[in-house]
Amino acid sequence: MLDALTATATPAVHRREDYRPPAWLVPDVSLDFALDPSATRVRARLDVRRGGETGEPLRLDGDGLTPIAVLVDGVAVNDWRMENDQLVIPLSGDAHVIETEVEIAPDRNTQLMGLYSSGGNLCTQCEAEGFRRITFFPDRPDVLATYRVRMSADKARYPVLLANGDPIASGDNGDGTHWAEWHDPFPKPSYLFALVAGDLACNRGTFTTRSGREVELGIWVRAADLSKTDHALHALKLSMAWDERVYGREYDLDVFNIVAVDDFNFGAMENKGLNIFNSRYILADPDTATDYDYDAIATVVAHEYFHNWSGNRVTCRDWFQLSLKEGFTVFRDQGFSADQGSAAVKRIEDVRGLRASQFPEDAGPLAHPVRPESYLEISNFYTSTIYNKGAELIRMMATILGPTRFRAACDLYFDRFDGTAATCEDFVACMEEGGGVDLSRFRLWYSQAGTPRVAASLSHDGGRATLRLAQHVPPTPGQAVKEPMVLPLKIRLFGAETGRPLGPEQLVLLEDASETILFDGVAERPVLSINRGFSAPVTIESDRTAEELAFLARHDDDPFARYEAMQQLMLDTLVAGAVEGAADHRAVIDAVADTLDDPTLDRAFVAEAVLLPSESFIGDQLSVVDPDAIFAAREALRADLGRALGDRWREIYDANESDRPYEYTPAAKAARRIRNVALGYIAASGASDAAALAFCQFERADNMTDRQGALSVLVNGESDLREAALDIFYNRYAGNPLVLDKWFQTQALSTRVDTLAAVRALAEHPDFTLANPNRARSLIGAFAVNQRAFNQADGAGYRFLADQLIALDRLNPQTAAKLLPPLGRWRRFDPARAALMRAELERIVGTSGLSKDLFEQASKSLD
Ligand code: PHE
Ligand code: ZN
To answer: Which stretches make up the Peptidase M1 membrane alanine aminopeptidase domain (predicted)?
Structure first.
């Protein structure tokens, strides 16, 4: 009885096949905001034109809005009606002017979608469907309008008023308020609308485009943070120059503004001419940001800037095409970052990220194609599959076309679709036409989910080598049977005796379920290097021996393949350790030693190559994940590496100490990275002075990379210096939310057995709040990826996560839904853990008043 009363109606499914062009277009919009934190008035004036021959009424999306007034061609009407949240206005002619007025309350907006307040300032987030929380509008990406925006607000509280496009006029109202008007001449969908009103300081710069346009750049932050914006401004200038040089794309407005806010659901947003960023992707100085943060800032600044072409000038027809802009833009930002330092290390990091988040997604209940067929809540589809696998699809096409033809095909795409809303199919068609290739079967990558597995086996007989390849795409929800994919595999053979390549690298396009490739004139026993550069996002299952992997780890000339061989060798060893309780560590120790000793290798590469695969990636190789056995096997190998190579780690640690102040240069970064890796191995060896060494580094560090590196080592350990370091860190950064996030996160990621208890206590800490997404992610999100602590056998970790998600869902459904996937991994665990995880998912689904965001993620995770 109660159930029937409280059960919410199942949310509507949106299907790609249901796409219809808009019945009404909106060429021009004028918006007038009387801004106020508790009661903002929004008046909208829409020029509407019929889009087709239909007799459809005008349907304007709204979310939580009540019309105060509705006017058609200047006359108040009352024949409108509300259908669910849509405002429906019957119209007879083909062109009208519609005016509406609503009132909204930004300071009660905890979802951080639409107009909301953050740190006393007002800002917006409209992608994907937030504009409908601001005003009534056809809130879909294929309705492109030019926007004129007028804002008026209290002058003392909101001295800065920003919107999309170029500033047109501003003035004083004489009553303590002031106003500003902005105009964006480029037609755009509503999800790219933005405004900001606040008390902000600006780091200004200029950029002259190659055709001579002077662009005024501004990074807007609270005054106290101004000194932390130079890195972001520099990255912006580099991005603008890079897009001109590499893609021939120029900026198109007179101003480009970026605003940093502390409360933000994602990383950043590419609103036309007015990017809004999570402050963690803008603010940096050596004392508060790690090298990783510096890199991420440059990448995200570039990503949002690159969207000006791949996203804004050419946008998406509907949200099923999301990867059209996101996959392509991630591919572009990856290219940019690769050009800033070590391309090999960048590729290693990107593949590591793909394996950490996208592969598990593709193997679990939330698997979906890069171009999904349906969704309940579009916010749930801002996934690693759309972004990172989407980028791999573009990369494969670029590999197949080669650089010159790929560039020509991109030019064709931008030229043909400029000013329109396009589809993934449009993009592929341009790759075919501009590149002169047939991608008919490549399109399966957009429609089939799942990570392909490729079995590779090389044999050698009398001067001829035979490579047998067989592919299999595993079933995913709704897709039981798959067709073979088109896989571009870069391959090279090496001579086992000489260590030299036997012929050039080849690009093999595996298109069938299986294929045999012959190599003639192979006198020496060959060793197979395959999927070099990670040319296809697949899992390779080869029968290469430990000896052959160790050989490649020493001799392969492709740095990624070299890294990969080492990883596979480590993985095989760790899997054996986890399954059998012990393993022979000698091959790994020797290969690590040789890597450390090879003077020709870049230190940045060495630091990545000697790191062990993560616990979760080891788990992905097992039929049943045993988190405790994985942890034990990994710690045992770490300890052995630490002990066996103890002198080398010490040498590296000492040799890479810097006597210069912090510099963000590739060489200085590499030195810090390898020194911190060495510290980790010294601690793993159980050396009695490890904690003292870490504490000394912690105290003497002039930068966050070294300070946090040392803190992590201490936090994983048992020394008394642990609490001391945590207290010093906390007190030193008490006023800095981004650094306090690190304080929470480091503790949530601790490998200690008491981590859940510590995390529970931290959830009660006065500085903890679920209302701020960064803070919620730093504790709850980090804990949920801590393999051993989260998966403790009594299910207390699962219960804790579910409790937090139910609480967070009431404030911020999007952020709650994003943190759910670890609970959906139940199929990968033993029956006892699986049952405990399912029970928590069922508890979430059964919660009354649940958002459709969390409902979709939890209910799909049960299937
Ligand atoms: N479009 C943004 C990006 O990729 C991500 C985003 C999505 C931000 C939804 C906010 C809301 O860069
Ligand atoms: Zn993006």
So the answer is: 232-442
CA of 326 to the centre of ligand 2 (A): 5
Name the DSSP letter for residue 12: P
Distance from C-alpha of 212 to C-alpha of 35, rounded to nearest angstrom: 37
262 secondary structure, DSSP code:
S
Reply yes or no on whether the pLDDT at 193 is more than 50: yes
**Cβ–ligand 1 contact at 270 (below 6 Å):** yes
Taking the centre of ligand 1 as the mean of its atom positions, its distance from the CA of residue 578, in whole angstroms, is 39
Pairing status of strand 255-261 against strand 274-278: parallel
Q: Is 129 in the pocket of ligand 1 (CB under 6 A)?
A: no
382 lines ligand 1 (CB under 6 A): yes
Q: In what order do the strands lie in the sheet with 464-472?
A: 514-520, 464-472, 453-461, 539-542
Q: How far is the CA of 854 from the centre of ligand 1 (A)?
A: 19
Mean predicted lDDT score pLDDT of the chain: 97
Mutate to test the pocket of ligand 1, among 116, 129, 133, 270 (most ligand atoms within 8 A of CB): 270
Mean pLDDT in residue range 295-306: 99
Residue 658 to residues 293, 607, 673, 765, 799, Cα–Cα distance (Å): 20, 17, 12, 36, 45
* Cα dihedral: 796, 800, 802, 804 (round 10): 180
Does ligand 1 lie within 6 Å of residue 266's CB atom?
yes
Distance 367 CA to ligand 2 centre (A): 20
- Residue 156's CB is within 10 A of a number of other CB atoms, namely 10
What Rg value do the Cα atoms of the chain yield, rounded? 28
Strand order in the sheet with 274-278: 201-208, 214-221, 255-261, 274-278, 268-269
Residue nearest to atom 5 of ligand 1 (CA): 269
How many whole angstroms separate alpha carbon 608 and alpha carbon 673? 9
Confidence of residue 52 (pLDDT cuts 50, 70, 90): confident
Active site residues: 304
Helix locations, 354-507, DSSP H? 359-362, 384, 390-401, 403-417, 424-435, 444-447
Helix (H) or strand (E) holding 349: helix 343-353
Candidate of 239, 266, 270 to mutate for ligand 1, largest count of ligand atoms within 8 Å of Cβ: 266
Query: Does 326 contact ligand 1 (Cβ within 6 A)?
Result: yes
CA-264 nearest atom, ligand 1: 10
Expressed in angstroms and rounded, the spacing between residue 329 Cα and the centre of ligand 2 is 6
**CA–CA distance, 856 with 402 (Å, rounded to integer):** 40
Beta strands in 496-561 (DSSP E): 506-510, 514-520, 526-530, 539-542
What is the C-alpha separation between 342 and 337, in angstroms, rounded?
Answer: 9
Ligand 1 neighbour 548 (Cβ under 6 A): no
Residue-wise pLDDT for 154-186, tens only, equals: 999 999 999 999 999 999 999 999 999 999 999
Q: Whose CA is nearest to atom 9 of ligand 1?
A: 127
ipTM of the complex: 0.98
Q: Which residue has the tokens 């004139």?
A: 521
238-242-248 Cα angle (round to 5): 145
Q: Answer yes or no: are the C-beta atoms of 511 and 484 closer than 8 Å.
A: yes
Substitution candidate for ligand 1 out of 113, 269, 306, 814 with most atoms within 8 A of CB: 269
Contact 618, 575 (CB under 8 A): yes
Count, residues in the chain? 863
CA atoms within 13 A on the CB side of 363: 23
260: left (phi over 0), alpha (psi -120 to 50) or beta: beta
Token output for 847: 């919660």
CA of 248 to the centre of ligand 1 (A): 24
Summarised one tens digit per residue, pLDDT across range 17-48 is 999 999 999 999 999 999 999 999 999 999 99
Separation of alpha carbons 565 and 492, rounded Å: 13
